[in-house]
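User: Here's a structure from my thesis project, written as structure tokens. My advisor, Dr. K., wants to see whether a designed sequence matches the one we expressed. Can you design one independently, without my sequence as a hint?
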């Protein structure tokens, strides 16, 4: 069976399992945080109180939405990448069910590719409704026609972040026996430290390129842009960021498929 056809079969099998898994329930609980923030901001706006001010100037709804998306990209997306990506293969090994997949007439690389595509579709299907809810809570109705393009950009950034982190952590899950700890250290240890270090070390992280795209989706507002600039530092061009994220995703998937093709998985008795 060809790689793409085999990946399609594994995708059909894995999607339903992921949608009804405990990880998806956890993801839904995590995504309630930005929704609660948006609800609070809407209630304060209705009551005439500004939820966020910079230099005594009220921050607009589109800017607040962009800041929420920035927080989701920096916190929620890496968490989802770790807990889903590292488990694509590791869970099969722990449950001793990987033998059933490897004995089917499907290449091993197709198993990882199909499960990765199922992860991507599952996370986008769950994240997208939360993002849309936040958008309509934060953005005033009169501003929706002029800001709908920013919603499309932010959805694309979330999908790109999920794809990049998922691919990297799928590689980690294919290589290591207990990959979740390594994934958490990478996402919330190494990347955070590298972003604060001077020089070019931050450029070998996913967060550097992903969060650099966020200011392009946030309407310009005095104080907020300066704050993000201070947090991000030197901002690369959007084309450079897209190329780097796509390159990292493809390379991680290719390496993950090669690892799973060559590695012998010994199941514990």
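Assistant: Designed independently from the structure alone:
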């Amino acid at each position: 069976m060809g790689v793409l056809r085999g990946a399609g079969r594994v995708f059909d099998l894995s999607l339903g399992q992921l949608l009804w898994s405990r990880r998806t329930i956890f993801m839904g609980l995590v995504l309630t945080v930005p929704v609660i923030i948006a609800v609070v901001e809407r209630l304060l706006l209705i009551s005439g109180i500004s939820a966020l001010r910079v230099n005594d100037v009220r921050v607009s709804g589109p800017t607040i939405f962009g800041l929420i998306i920035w927080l989701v990209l920096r916190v929620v997306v890496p968490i989802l990448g770790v807990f889903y990506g590292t488990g694509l293969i590791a869970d099969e090994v722990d449950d001793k069910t990987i033998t059933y997949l490897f004995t089917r007439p499907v290449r091993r690389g197709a198993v990882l590719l199909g499960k990765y595509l199922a992860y991507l579709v599952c996370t986008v299907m769950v994240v997208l409704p939360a993002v849309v809810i936040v958008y309509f809570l934060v953005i005033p109705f009169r501003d929706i026609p002029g800001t709908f393009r920013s919603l499309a950009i932010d959805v694309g950034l979330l999908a790109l972040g999920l794809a990049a982190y998922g691919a990297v952590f799928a590689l980690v899950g294919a290589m290591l026996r207990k990959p979740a700890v390594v994934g958490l250290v990478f996402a919330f240890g190494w990347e955070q430290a590298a972003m604060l270090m001077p020089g070019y070390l931050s450029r070998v992280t996913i967060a550097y390129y992903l969060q650099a795209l966020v200011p392009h989706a946030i309407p310009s507002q005095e104080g907020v842009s300066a704050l993000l600039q201070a947090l991000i530092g030197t901002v690369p061009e959007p084309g450079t960021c897209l190329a780097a994220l796509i390159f990292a995703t493809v390379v991680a998937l290719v390496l993950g498929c090669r690892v799973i093709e060559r590695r012998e998985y010994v199941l514990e008795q």
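When you compare it with your expressed construct, this may help: The chain is about 75% helix and 0% strand.
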